[in-house]
Design brief:
The chain has 165 residues and is an alpha/beta fold. It contains four helices and seven strands. Helix content is 28%, strand content 20%. The strands form two sheets. Strands 5-4-3-6-7 form a five-stranded mixed β-sheet. The relative contact order is 0.19.
Length: 165
């Protein structure tokens, strides 16, 4: 707590100003550096207070293709309960990522991490890597690779955070 203003992990994307008008840099937004799949700036979503899944993928990654239907199903089932899902392509070029997105047609938001700054922030070294953040933006589940069982465990963790029995 800084002069009555809470600073939470990687939650805020704006400066935090205390009652004494002291300006302090807040942590970087977890998705800062991502672009839309067309290469244009991406309006960063509000994550604080939300249960969020971030999936790092590439168009050439077979396990990523297998994981997408599970992620899309997860999103469709729980978006009404407050779950957010974001897929971040780590492809070097946006064109293959756009083609992949057109084939898969997920309902969740997709973005592109052309310089790898977001994947570096999360320590991504293998694909797919799927991260579950709680409402305070703490990482509560991390899955590397894809198996149906791993995704079931992540779904259970998400359901717990969303208070779904």
């Amino acid at each position: 707590m800084v002069h009555g203003v809470s600073l939470v992990g990687a939650a805020a994307c704006n400066r935090v100003i205390s009652r004494e008008s002291t300006v302090r840099e807040a942590p970087i937004h977890p998705l800062q550096g991502a672009l839309r799949l067309d290469g244009q700036p991406w309006a960063l979503p509000t994550l604080q207070g939300q249960v969020t899944v971030i999936d790092f993928w590439a168009s050439w990654c077979s396990p990523c293709r297998e994981a997408f239907p599970f992620l899309d199903n997860l999103y469709r089932r729980y978006v009404g309960n407050g779950l957010q899902v974001f897929g971040l392509s780590v492809d070097k070029e946006a064109k293959p990522a756009r083609a992949f997105a057109a084939r898969m047609q997920p309902q969740f938001a997709l973005a592109w991490d052309p310089d790898g700054v977001v994947s570096d922030r999360f320590g991504v070294q293998q694909l797919p890597t799927t991260i579950l953040l709680d409402q305070s933006l703490r990482m509560v589940h991390r899955n590397v690779g894809f198996t149906e069982e791993d995704h079931r465990r992540m779904e259970l963790a998400a359901r717990d955070l969303l208070n779904i029995l």
